[in-house]
């Protein structure tokens, strides 16, 4: 282990050569040899490149994993460290990676890099057409030969002006939200944020000292009784040919048991990678038909870049929803390497998103099926690190789910097509409660970035809300009511989060960071208000664009 000091300039140069350098406890870690084996996936590391990730690393890893990281040290850094912008947050990142990979000797490649694969696929698609959604200007456009030169010039001028206006308008709204965020939160100066970090680390130590990382397995005994009760009731009504009532209980079983899959995905049950991975795969893939690998690949990133429009996959839902004015700019997702273009569909749908929220949540499970299969059939599934067996296990379990649910139950057991359709719809509609619970904690919260000096705990509390409920109702929310606490300490077992909540409230009072906690109904109102707020921004923008088109203002004539 080298104790030499390495300069910030040298680290920046090394990062430019595509080395994932992360700062941890005053040391620079070169994770080049580890990134493809990281159980949390490549993207989790890439979003921390050039940053002091001490808190993120410490809360996500066991003591054993933290000891392993020492072997990747390449030198000490001078503190306090000034965070760099991770290269993956640059729009040209994937292009630069592809160019770099092309220069590397293919014999040294040990696996297919998903970034390179995505770039190559994109290039091939671009020969025939763009891989992103076509804009309204291109979809159904009049052939170029049929347009006069003046008409084409005019149309291009109109579209260019609209784009410039939309981006300028989005920037103005972002600046307003940034100013509000600065006013409502502790100062972003280094000394203030450093003090918050010190208090946060002391809180983390207190949680460890009080044994809140120890799982209470008796609570899972109670959970198992509830799961078996719901599943048994489903079977009883199915046997009695009360098909739609049976479907309701199957939906409730799915909604409840996924809470334990969430725990396993965070290794919050046994702490053992193999055991928790198998528990998660059995519940998510076998019992529910959803890929735990897909969930982990997006969820790990979500925890690190919470509510960042360009980077957090959990809020990238164009053209159905927009929770941030940033999407008006047509952002490139660093998670999907996909351009979320603001097009005519977004112009049409976003103004009504307050009204489409619950209907879409009711049907969201069907989309999760698609995302699960797309993940397992893509190179990304092989980049969650660790064990070679996770992908085959998931494919086997998901195949079993569709044999049991799709073939044995829906096709063979249910007597007619009307009943089959009704059964599937009812069972899946029941799970909308889970989808609302998942989106509730973030969709109504700020999405702007307050800069590289903002501490990890401040960003997590600023972008996450908790749901207030009595202790006897904790079973209904399954731990998702403590999302702010969970984002600060993601490996704390679910049944200990209520105890942690009181400590987090004290931390909030001490640091001045607002702890946001609302009742379930009030929390829904917060989300709907945010959806309406962004919708109103879009309506105003569209009205201004129409006015510009009618008057010709700004179109150069």
From TrEMBL:
Gene3D superfamilies: Cytochrome b5-like heme/steroid binding domain (3.10.120.10)
UniProt domain Cytochrome b5 heme-binding: residue ranges: 1-78
Record keywords: Heme, Iron, Lipid metabolism, Membrane, Metal-binding, Oxidoreductase, Sphingolipid metabolism, Transmembrane, Transmembrane helix
EC number: 1.14.19.18
Similarity-based family: Belongs to the fatty acid desaturase type 1 family.
Broadest EC class assigned to this enzyme: oxidoreductase
Pfam families: Cyt-b5, FA_desaturase
InterPro entries the record matches: Cyt_B5-like_heme/steroid-bd, Cyt_B5-like_heme/steroid_sf, FA_desaturase_dom, Fatty_acid_desaturase
CDD domains: Delta6-FADS-like
Transmembrane segments: 227-253, 273-295, 357-376, 388-405, 417-436
A GO cellular component entry from the record: membrane
Protein name according to UniProt: Delta 8-(E)-sphingolipid desaturase
Annotated source species: Aaosphaeria arxii CBS 175.79
MF terms in GO: metal ion binding; oxidoreductase activity, acting on paired donors, with oxidation of a pair of donors resulting in the reduction of molecular oxygen to two molecules of water
């Amino acid at each position: 282990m080298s104790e030499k000091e390495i300069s910030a300039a040298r680290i920046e140069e090394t990062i430019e050569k595509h080395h994932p350098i992360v700062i941890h406890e005053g040391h620079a870690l070169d994770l080049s040899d580890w990134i493809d084996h990281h159980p949390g996936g490549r993207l989790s590391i890439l979003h921390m490149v050039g940053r002091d990730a001490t808190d993120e690393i410490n809360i996500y890893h066991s003591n054993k994993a933290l000891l392993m990281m020492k072997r990747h040290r390449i030198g000490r850094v001078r503190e306090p460290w000034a965070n760099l912008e991770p290269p993956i947050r640059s729009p040209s990142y994937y292009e630069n990676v592809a160019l770099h990979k092309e220069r590397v000797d293919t014999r040294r490649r040990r696996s297919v890099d998903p970034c390179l694969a995505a770039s190559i696929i994109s290039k091939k698609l671009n020969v025939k057409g763009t891989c992103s959604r076509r804009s309204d200007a291109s979809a159904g456009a009049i052939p170029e030969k049929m347009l006069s030169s003046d008409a084409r010039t005019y149309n291009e001028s109109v579209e260019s002006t609209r784009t410039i206006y939309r981006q300028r308008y989005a920037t103005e709204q972002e600046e307003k939200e940034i100013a509000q965020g600065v006013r409502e939160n502790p100062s972003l100066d280094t000394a203030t944020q450093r003090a918050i970090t010190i208090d946060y680390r002391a809180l983390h130590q207190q949680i460890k000292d009080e044994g809140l990382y120890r799982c209470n397995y008796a609570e899972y005994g109670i959970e198992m009784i509830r799961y078996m009760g719901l599943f048994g009731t489903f079977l009883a009504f199915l046997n009695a040919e009360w098909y739609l009532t049976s479907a309701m209980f199957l939906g409730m079983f799915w909604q409840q048991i996924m809470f334990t899959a969430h725990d396993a995905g965070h290794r919050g049950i046994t702490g053992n990678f193999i055991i928790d991975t198998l528990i998660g795969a059995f519940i998510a893939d076998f019992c529910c038909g959803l890929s735990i690998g897909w969930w982990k690949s997006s969820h790990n990133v979500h925890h690190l870049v919470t509510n960042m429009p360009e980077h957090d996959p959990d809020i990238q839902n164009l053209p159905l929803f927009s929770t941030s004015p940033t999407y008006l700019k047509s952002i490139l997702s660093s998670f999907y390497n996909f351009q979320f273009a603001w097009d005519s569909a977004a112009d049409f749908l976003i103004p009504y998103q307050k009204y489409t929220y619950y209907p879409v949540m009711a049907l969201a499970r069907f989309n999760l099926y698609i995302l699960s299969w797309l993940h397992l059939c893509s190179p990304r599934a092989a980049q969650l690190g660790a064990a070679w067996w996770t992908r085959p296990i998931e494919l086997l379990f998901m195949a079993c789910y569709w044999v049991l649910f799709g073939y044995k139950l829906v096709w063979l057991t249910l007597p007619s097509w009307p009943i089959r359709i009704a059964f599937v719809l009812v069972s899946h509609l029941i799970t909308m409660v889970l989808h609302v619970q998942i989106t509730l904690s973030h969709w109504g919260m700020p999405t702007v970035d307050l800069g590289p000096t903002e501490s990890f705990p401040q960003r997590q509390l600023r972008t996450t809300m908790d749901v207030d409920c009595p202790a006897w109702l904790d079973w209904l929310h399954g731990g998702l009511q403590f999302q702010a606490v969970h984002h600060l300490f993601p490996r704390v077992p679910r049944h200990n989060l209520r105890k942690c909540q009181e400590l987090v409230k004290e931390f909030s009072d001490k640091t001045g960071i607002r702890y946001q906690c609302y009742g379930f109904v009030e929390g829904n109102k917060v989300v709907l208000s945010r959806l309406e707020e962004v919708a109103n921004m879009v309506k105003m923008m569209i009205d201004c664009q129409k006015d510009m088109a009618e008057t010709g203002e700004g179109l150069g004539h």
